Fold each of these.
Amino acid sequence: MRRPTHEVKIGKLRIGGQNKVAVQSMTTCSTMDTEGCVEQCIRIIDAGADLVRLTTQGTREAENLRNIKAGLIARGYGDTPLCADVHFNPNVADVAATIVEKVRINPGNYVDPARQFKHLEYTDEEYQQELKRLDDRFCGFLSICREHGTAIRIGVNHGSLSDRIMSRYGDTPAGIVESCMEFLRICEREHFPNVVVSIKASNTVVMVQSVRLLCKEMEKEGMDYPLHLGVTEAGEGEDGRLKSAVGIGSLLIDGIGDTIRVSLSEEPECEIPVAQSILQAARVQMCKPEFISCPGCGRTLYDLQDTIRRIKAAVEAKAKVDVRYKTLKIGIMGCIVNGPGEMADADYGYVGAARGKVSLYKNKECIEKNVPEAEAVERLIAFIDKDLDSNS
């Protein structure tokens, strides 16, 4: 069961509530490079992203978001919202909020100074004074966002907790969560609901523990903000994909998460298919055909790997022109011993029956026995076509 949240409006995009889990990525070129950012945004959007984030270091970069947005509109990509990523300078967040649909701020450095890894001693009164300073500055930002219909992401990073939080709570999930809750309590008091929340860490265990604790703390205080999930600095290649799948997937399976980003040290558009695959593996959203196949064993009497390649090619080609194929699960099993049972989750199946012979299935029902292997892939596709048409 998905964790209940309220809906947040980000331009034409809706996050939370009953909306699908949104996928996003972030540009890597300089935000002063207008054409470079436009091109990168287009590649990200074409890959399937619902939102694009851009780093916004200073006021110049914030102002140039206007030119990037105009470039995207001119190219026909104006419906995808942009998010400004702001650190260290709340004045930049103020400017960005007048231009783009969403602004991300980092509680660790929004008003607190850059982290120096120093232990700070506060009396309770001094600590409350620091919170008052945060409160005063953040309320001004909320007023600008309210005026312009701008959404906010309160994005906590484990690696950038302020010295103030670290000194009082230590390097703990409790401290990570409190860093976020300080801002959320202000949003609640000011009746500003257009907020998405994230807690990220490069350590998947810390990330998962902290997000689960945040959910509990929000529930205690009657909050239901949507959550953005990600393992920050996940890396590249197989390592980055595995860490992201473990961290994000663990929470999605619990019903937690309304938007995700897979942070890879690769071209940003490479993140989107990985995110979609994680959503599918967690059974949150079917984004493409899924293939359930056994590893093969001594009972397998046909070339399993070659057959998988041929079936995937045929089904994926169909999915490009027929949307009904995008949600199909196809089982490809080496033998009759365990095949029908192990692929019970599949819509259609291909199971080795004897040397050179294959049986075809719909769900758990055998629809054709002892099909010559040379004809089996084509017969399977023909049956799927006919079956889908009959149910249309």
Amino acid sequence: MYDGFYNLNKKPFQLNADTDFFFNSEVHRRALAYMHYGLKQGEGFVIVIGKPGTGKTMLVKELVKSLNDDNITIGIMVSSQVGADDLLKIISATFGLPYDGEDKSTLLTRIQRFFIQQARDGKRILMIVDEAQNLPKDSLEELRMLTNFELAGKSLFQIFLIGQPELSETLFLPEMEQLRQRIVATYQLKPLNEEETKSYILFRLEKAGWAQTPQFDGDVFTGISNYTQGIPRRINTLCDRVLLFGYLEELAVIDLSAITKVIAEIEEETSIVIDESHDVLSSSAALTIDTNGSLEQRIVALEKIVLNLQNTLNKERSLLRKAILIQLDMDAIYDEDSGQG
């Protein structure tokens, strides 16, 4: 699509965490430094907190990429609402240990033996838990207990918890005191400032083979920074749409008016989805049956509810049709672009 129009060798603002596009901002550089410091301690917990879209997953991938796999055995878990017992099964699966049908004591024994064997082989165990704000307190406590495994006075298991601000709130609960005492390093990711936002955009464009086409007016970066508040994922989403807009309008120069138009489109789309979703939910909950009424009254109420549900279904189908039509339009544009390529 626009990558061919602007002679880019790949999409510069894709949402997946590709380490080729890792932007070593001051914030992310410091976060990596804290993580490496924590690794040198070889024990306890390292905590990285950041709002959605601030680059936590990219940071994890960059860290793993930089580590020497010869002496570190790494397990990565994207957490959900996992209870303590299931957590042990997930850890077992992560490190390739059998777990199906096993009780907790068997799982713990097998995990401990695995840790010991890894240590004897000269390897360290690092468990990285992404989206750690989803872990219940009993699961966090189970992780803390696993850090008690030692061999010759050295810890066998180190844990990095990567999560959203809710994780910090959980860790500061009174019952989390023992876990807090095991934290060796913590860092909170902050958004990019305006100058970093500009550097981030240009960095990703250059990584994608940008050769000054399209050009960008200077005030464009201020507009993008203000709207996205320096959140990398928001920057990616907006810039991707801006380049698509530039392709459709055949723009060689992106100015502030283009940014404003794209932002207005995004806001309008968001407003439509919210309004129509609200209408669907409101109409579904609008009617109830009064069980104290007469049979005739209850039948009339039931008929209204059935009609209301039919209307709700029609609205949901309308939303689905809109989504399908948008996708078909995008596919047609892609096919047309591919045919020209």
Amino acid sequence: MGKILSIDLDGTLLDNNKKIPQSTIDYLNMLRKKLNLVVISTGRSINSALDVTSKGSFADYIISDAGALIYDCFNKKVISEENLDSKDCKKVFEDAIINNCKDIKIYTNSNIYKYSREKEYEKSTIIKIDKFEDLGKDIEKITHIAVHFYNNNAVYDFMNSYSNKNEKDKKLKTTRLYLMKDYTSEYVWLDVVSLNINKYYGLLNLLKILKEKESNNFYKEDNIICFGDGSNDFEMMKYSKISVAMGNAFDEIKSVSKYITFTNEEKGVEKWLKKHESILI
């Protein structure tokens, strides 16, 4: 029975220079030949994920935007996508500006938009906006939003302004905010996704698609092995049959994981897989 290897990118598969060791790529490709699925599960947008994985050349699928979008690497196309409610998105966007945010990044499956108070260099692929309506038709195609503030206190204050509400008075109906932090620093920002979206949800959605596509149960939920380090990996690590936290993972991730491996700088994913190769081939 083939395993589903669900692997986070930043802080997990990527080293601190945002590179993936060639030996890890070679090993994952070998495992794929043994009928194991390699699935990249990331909070990045699909285009960003493709950029750092050589267009997904060593993976079968990419689950991006923390579970909202599924990309078929072989056929080079999006096979599932769940978009945010545009009214909720506009509410967060305008509230963040009122509360003096630093910048707001809005992601669709084809574009990245950015509102910013700073004059800074931007990649040519990022579209600058001044108001929410500047998204045009992409208003209905948002997969996730990232909101950055100048300091962590402002992040927590903004988060609390949304969470300290009675159920009937909730500002957002079908959307949720959660805290994100890079393991290399103490800086915190907010990600905005659809209410039920997370990486484990994305994995179950992928399995459903595969079952319908293949008309069999070759890949099952009990065969998921996941690797992660950060807060948006929590559900995936908690509910997967086998979960492997990186040595550099946050304590909350280690606490719900079955195993702990080496850090991303020490090729922790590759080392764990080689040590437990008997369950894979």
Amino acid sequence: MNCRSSALLVLCLAQPLGCAAAPPARTLDPGKRIALDRRGLYPEGIAFDAPRKQFVVGSMREGDLYSVDAQGGVHQLTRDRRLCSVLGVAVDSQRGRVWAANSDLAVSRKPSAAGAKSLAAVGAYDLETGRPLHYADLGQLVPGPHAANGIALDAAGTAYVTDSLSPVIYAAPFGKPASVLLRDDAFDGEGINLNGLAWHPRGYLLVVKKSDGALFRVPTANPREFVRVNVAATFQGGDGVTLIDERRLLVVSNHTQDVRANAAYLLESTDGWTTADVTEVLPLGAVYPTNAVAADGRLFAVHSNLDELLSKSVTNVSVRQASILEIGSLEGLGERGEK
């Protein structure tokens, strides 16, 4: 036996049968399903209230925020007549606040005074009592149709909100006037455009554009220096964006008129989100998944066949039961810093 053969023998003995290397551990893997015990909520956004160990979802049909416990028990958190359809939701546990992106897509039981596709607003509420703390009309900042959709919070507690019907990202600091962070024709397109976003602790937003699947990196200090992330995939139908750690991002996609993805994509970047790779894909089925959240080391996605509500009037739609599905675990992976 020559040296090369000896080395191969040692290598094979150190590996499982057949000399095959053990497969890498997966992050995305479907688990338990939590059925919400209140039908007809049609949640789009989801967040996690860590101190109280509960999810917070917004309702597109009922127009308020609701807390959800681990067994699917639902409790109405807010009672704000201004809330028409709540899309994006973000929890600020440090400051005891929950934020809601407010729109009117003609599917709510509480139509807005502004009218369908004319409302874009954001509100902040006490996380424990639901008491209104701050409310900002964003649509008056830019003419045109509006739908406030995704929402993300930075370290100072400022909310950033996408407008899916106008090519705009808004900045809404708590207790201060809101402003346009960035408006650009690159965010324009057919149908629903800018959607979910996440704030990165290095000082930029990662934003998905649903219509064509582009992912953008937008520095909040110099927003005109935004770039499209170079990734060998597009995320048409891209809805929710969840930052797992500085190098990993989860994108939840449902569908557009031309593409039906209905999947969760795990991305990784080693160069500060100039480029990225898709490392895992998890099909979620034809349930129109919208957003995901990390909670106690696990990943959960919310869905309720929201496309059915959007395609019909609120009076003749079937009253669906929403679900929160465990789609992965972060246990044992640790947090990876950005190079």
